[in-house]
Amino acid sequence: MSALAQTIEQAYERRAELTPGRAPAAILDAVDTALAELDLRPRVPPALMADATVAFIDGLALDVANGSAREPRVSYDIFWLALISLTE
Fold first, then answer.
1. Where would I find the H helices in the chain?
2. Considering the entire predicted model, what is its pTM?
3. Ramachandran class of 39: left when φ > 0, alpha when ψ lies in -120 to 50, beta otherwise
4. How many helices (H) and strands (E) does the chain have?
């Protein structure tokens, strides 16, 4: 299992402890920080981007937990490119 796959699995385990439907502040902060460092302004609310990030991580974790042979790094890269496309 790759390091990214292990990180995703650990994130999923911690995610079970969070309130459903609300992105944790740490993910919102990570999205805000990443966009700020790239000098990008989101065209959609950052909270919506954080919720999408949580859903994405959940999906990757389930994929890894179900033994998918697909490399999660490719999906991860495409997801972040999609988030960046929602900025100006």
1. 3-15, 25-37, 46-65, 72-85
2. 0.67
3. left
4. 4, 0
Beta bridge partners, 42, equal 87
> Do the beta carbons of residue 15 and residue 61 sit within 8 Å?
yes
* 88 residues of the chain, pLDDT tens digit each: 566 666 666 666 666 555 555 667 778 888 888 888 889 999 998 888 888 888 888 888 888 778 887 888 888 899 989 989 999 8
By C-alpha distance, which of 17, 44, 79 is closest to 26? 17
Going from N- to C-terminal start, the domains of the chain cover 3-85
Encoded tokens for 39: 């000098």
CA pair distance 69, 56, nearest whole angstrom: 17
Handedness of CA 14, 17, 22, 26 (dihedral sign): negative
Q: Extract the tokens encoding 64.
A: 């890894």
Query: Other C-beta atoms within 10 Å of 17: how many?
Result: 7
